[in-house]
Amino acid sequence: MADLEAVLADVSYLMAMEKSKCTPAARASKKIVLPDPSVRSVMHKYMEKKNEVNFDKIFNQVLDLMNLIGDRGQYSSADSNKHLI
């Protein structure tokens, strides 16, 4: 008789396990929203904390007027058309 009770207990346990697989758990319905794990967002937050979100720190270059128009002055308009084609 003890063997029959053990088998019935095992069967009821297995049936309960199968039933719980079909229904989602109550705690699983609450999803935790994680922040974006991309490298860009992590580095941006780090640089914001250190107040280093500027062109000089990001690109390791000083932005000035000579950098902006210095490269454009090297090419004539004919050369620039060749680069577009």
Describe, in plain words, how this protein is organized in 3D.
The protein is an all-alpha fold. The chain has one domain. Helices cover 60% and strands 0% of the residues. The protein starts with a helix and ends with a helix. The mean pLDDT is 70.
Secondary structure: elements and pairs:
Elements: H1 2-22, H2 39-49, H3 55-59, H4 65-70, H5 77-84
Offer a quick outline of the entry:
Helix content is 60%, strand content 0%. The chain is mostly helical. The relative contact order is 0.05.
* Secondary-structure-derived class: mainly alpha
Shape: rod-shaped
Sheet with the most strands, sense and barrel status: none
Mean pLDDT: 70
Radius of gyration: 33 Å
Q: Using DSSP, what is the number of strands?
A: 0
SS summary, helix count:
5
- Stretches where pLDDT is under 50 for at least 5 consecutive residues are none
Ends: how far apart?
90 Å
**Overall number of domains:** 1
Strand content: under 5%
